[in-house]
Amino acid sequence: LVTRMRPFTSTIFAEMTALATRTGAVNLGQGFPDTDGPASMLRVAKESIDAGLNQYPPGPGMPELRQAVAEHRARYGTHYDPDTEVLVTVGATEAVAAALLGLVEPGDEVVLVEPYYDSYAASVALAGATRRSVGLVEEPGTGRLGLDVDALRAAVTPKTRAVLVNSPHNPTGTVFTRDELAAVARLCVEHDLVAITDEVYEHLVFDGREHLPLAAFPGMRERTVTISGAGKSFNCTGWKIGWVCAPAGLVGAVRAAKQFLTFVGGAPFQPAVAHALRHELGWVDDLRASLEDKRSRLSAGLAEAGFAVRPSEGTYFVTADVRPLGFTDGLELCRELPGRIGVAGVPVQVFTDHPEAWQHLVRFAFCKRDEVLDEAVRRLRGLG
Ligand code: PMP
Ligand code: GLN
Questions:
Q1: Which residues form a coiled coil (predicted)?
Q2: How many Cα atoms within 13 Å fall on the side-chain side of residue 260?
């Protein structure tokens, strides 16, 4: 194995899901829903298979999906030409990798917000670039994990090429505010940086919050590669349909890398996702409302079990401080939890370059049926 990939041999999701399966634990580790997406979307996928849409789709993605993605993005006031400014990818994961491979030179620096989704560091390494991670900071009083704008500014050097921003944020559940995003935008404009945004949880924002795409901020459309996907909005994480929206020059760079990673993917799922984007956003509103309740349900349960729970403003996830229960190391605890009480979580420190600063937090997924969450909480109460 090449040196640059040695830190990335196994993902925490594989480890914790295997452990959960082996021990019969309730798996609140890997984030995936345990119910299906909208029935009409599933029907279109089945009909597409029956209609013979089983060969390679067009390189940029099927026109009807690119059109639906462009129409959907217009709701934020950002407009893209479906023919030249939209690219369908094999999930957001491929989009992030292809964006970095197509836009970042070896030796360039990429700024990540820490903790970061695990594929970012691996993709930066694949591109031969160097990551500089800037930690979220806990806000006094609320415990919200917010953006440290000064630290972000300090992380930019003459070698910085891109900033990768994920909001709503995995693993913390933070939804960046207008002020936080405006600060990122100003920094990108000032230093002529490319912004790569991961917005896969765009619809999963709680308590009346609004999802704000970075591309909609002044000076940002021309320099932003916006990434999203269907998995989280329509409960179809296994379909791996993602997309990129950006000006033609940037999309062309992403496509150059993408075409040699997978070429294309997901033929029968593309019309199904196009249908869902056009006709099932009401279903997504219900999903959001249900996840908001689940967020509150699991957060309350974790607090009862003795964790210090951090606010979750969106996504599938809530983080909890394990120190009030007498533990110090979340990784150790997550390796122990399934065997000891039958619940799996994910330690936040594995998403960082500073594990010692993050070892007190564990991430739990609440995108599960209520009875599953209640059973997890019942078991977690045994910890205290
Ligand atoms: N980005 C984030 C922040 C995620 O949480 C996930 C899914 N866990 C992905 C990207 C990957 O998305 P996809 O399955 O579409 O590749
Ligand atoms: N995105 C999901 C999570 O954060 C799972 C992704 C994966 O298994 N690679 O839990």
A1: none
A2: 7
Q: What is the mean pLDDT of residues 347-364?
A: 97
Distance (Å) from CA 96 to ligand 1 centroid: 9
For the CA of 241, the nearest atom of ligand 1: 15
Alpha-carbon dihedral angle through residues 202, 314, 103, 255, given to the nearest 10 degrees: -40
Residues 349 and 260 in one domain: no
Same domain (yes/no): 160, 227:
yes
Distance from residue 31's CA to the centre of ligand 2 (Å): 5
Which atom of ligand 1 is least distant from the CA of 95?
Answer: 16
Same domain, 221 and 362: no
DSSP assigned state of 58? P
Which class for 146: exposed (0-12), middle (13-18), buried (19 or more C-beta within 10 A)?
A: middle
Q: What digits encode the pLDDT tens for the residues 19-47?
A: 999 999 999 999 999 999 999 999 999 99
CA 56 to chain centroid: 27
Is there an atom of ligand 2 within 6 Å of 13 CB? Answer: yes
- Please, are residues 4 and 128 in contact by the beta-carbon 8 Å criterion? yes
Task: Tell me what ipTM this predicted complex has.
Answer: 0.97
pLDDT per position as a tens digit, 145-189: 999 999 999 999 999 999 999 999 999 999 999 999 999 999 999
Q: Identify whether 47 is part of a domain.
A: no
Q: How far is the CA of 30 from the centre of ligand 2 (A)?
A: 5
Residue whose CA lies nearest to ligand 1 atom number 15? 91
What is the 52 CA–ligand 2 centroid distance (Å)?
A: 31
Average pLDDT of the chain, as a whole number: 97
